[in-house]
Amino acid sequence: MASDTSATRTPHRWMRRLQGRVMPVELERRLADVAIRSAFAGLDTLGLIDIDLGRTRYPVKIQRDLRYGDREHSGRADFYRPDGQRPRAIILYIHGGGFRIGSKDSHWPMPWILARHGYAVLAIDYRLAPEHPYPAAVEDARAARVWMSAQAPELGIENLPWVVAGESSGANVALALGLAHLVASDEPWARGLSENYAAPRAIIPTCGYLQVSNPRRFEHRRRLPAFVTDRLYEASEAYLRTRDPESCPLVDPLVVLEQLERLDAELPAFFTAVGTADPLLDDTRRLERAANRLGARICAHYFTGEFHSFHAFPWRPASRTYWQKLLGFLDAICPPEGGRRPDQRSSSPCASSRGGSTSTNSKRSPAKLRKVTT
Q1: Nearest C-alpha neighbor of 114 from the set 137, 130, 96, 93
Q2: What residues form DSSP beta bridges with 301?
Q3: 246: Cβ contacts below 8 Å, ≥ 6 apart
Q4: What is the dihedral of CA 202, 142, 251, 130, to 10 degrees?
Q5: Residue 42, domain extent
Q6: Cα 135 to Cα 257: distance, rounded to the nearest angstrom
Q7: pLDDT more than 70, % of the chain
C-alpha cells in the first residue's frame, strides 16, 4: 500500500498550530458539542427532526449514560428503544466528528430516528484524538460491542441481530469493527472477535472517511477549498499520530477490504451513502467496488450535489430519501421475529431513487490477501 501518513506536508499546518494556541482542543470540542446540540434542539422545536417517512412511528424510551466496557476500556452510552415494541435489531451507532469532536449527545437525531422506527440503538461515546489516537476509538467500540452482547437480557435485546453503523469518522470505526469479526487480526484490540462473536448482520458506513493514512489522495481528484483540505489532514494526523498503518492495518478498513481476495464466511450486507459534493466521495466508491468484487450484498446510494453528512438534516428531500432507503434496507435484512430472513442470493433490498444511484450485488465468493496500491 502506498501511503503518506504524515500531515506535515500540508501548507495549512501552521493554521492548526495557531488554532491550537488560541483554542485548545478541549475548548473546541465543548463549543462544537454545544453548537451542534443547540442547533438540533432548535430544529426539533420546529418539528424538523421528527419527520413523517410514511412509516409507523413509535414512542422512544432512552436510558442515558450507561457505563459500558471494563476497567481497561470503558465509556458511556445511551440506549434508545421503541417503547412498547420488540425491536427488530440492535444497532451499535458510532458518531462522527473527524475523530476529534462529537459525542453521543451531539449526534442524538440519528439513533433517535432509528428507534422511532422500530430499532434499538446503543449510541456510544468513545475516546477522542489527538489525546487518544488509534486504536482508542476501536478499542472502545469493541468494548461496547462485547458489553452489549453480555447485557442483552437486561437490555431486552437477546436473540436480536446486530448491526454496526456510523458516519464520517464513525463510519471508519464501524467498518473496522465489522471487519474484525470477519478477518483474524494480530492487532490486540481485534483479537478474538472473529472466533468468539457473531459478525454483524449489516455494516452501515455513511459519508465515511475509510482510509485515513493518505489524505493527499483527495487533492489528486479535485481542487478542494483550503479549509476542507486542512480538516482532512487534521483528522488523519490526530487519529494516526506517529503510527505506521502497515503495523495497524485496520486503521484503514477500506484498504483491508480491498486487499481481501475471498472470504470463507458470509459477508454482512452493506448500506452506504454519500453526496457527490462530499470530499469523501471516492472512499464510498472504493467501498462499493471492493464489496462487489467480494460478492457482498451492498446498497450504495449517491446523492447528486449533496454535502458531507447531508443525512443529518432529515427535513431536506435528500436526507428524507436516505432515511427511507436505510429503513427499507434494515427491514429487509432484519425481519420481525418469526419472519424469514432473506437469503443472500434473493432479491436485493436496494431500490433506485431520484435522490441517488444504487448499486447491488447478491453473489458470494469465498479470502486471501491481495496487495492494493491506493
Answers
A1: 93
A2: 273, 358
A3: 1
A4: 130
A5: 13-334
A6: 18
A7: 84
Residue 1, domain member (yes or no): no
On whether residue 372 sits in a domain, the answer given is no
Domain count, the chain: 1
Average predicted confidence (pLDDT) for the chain: 88
pLDDT at 366: 32
Domain contains 126:
yes
Cα distances (angstroms) measured from residue 235 to each of 19, 119, 240, 253, 364: 14, 31, 8, 16, 34
CB-neighbour burial class of residue 194 (10 A; exposed 0-12, middle 13-18, buried 19+): middle
Residue 311 contacts residue 51 (beta carbons within 8 Å): no
pLDDT tens, position by position, 225-236: 888 999 999 999
The answer, yes or no, to whether residue 151 has pLDDT greater than 50, is yes
3-class secondary structure, 255: helix
Q: Tell me the percentage of the chain whose pLDDT exceeds 90.
A: 75
What crossing angle do the helices spanning 13-22 and 226-240 adopt, rounded to 10°? 70
Bond before 349 cis per omega within 30 degrees: no
Least confident of 17-31, 273-287, 348-362: 348-362
370 inside domain: no
Nearest CA to 80 out of 179, 159, 148 is that of 148
User: In Å, how far are 44, 75, 112 from 62, measured between CA atoms?
Assistant: 17, 17, 9
Strand arrangement of the beta sheet that strand 202-206 belongs to = 60-69, 74-82, 120-124, 90-94, 162-167, 202-206, 269-275, 298-303, 356-359
Per-residue pLDDT for 342 more than 60?
A: no
Cis bond before residue 24 (omega within 30° of 0)? no
pTM of the model: 0.89
CATH number at residue 175: 3.40.50.1820
CB 215 within 8 A of CB 239: no
List, in sequence order, every residue forming a beta bridge with 356; answer none if it has no partner. Answer: 303, 353
Handedness of CA 55, 59, 65, 67 (dihedral sign): negative
- Angle at CA 114, nearest 5°, toward 112 and 115? 65
36 vs 5 pLDDT, higher one: 36
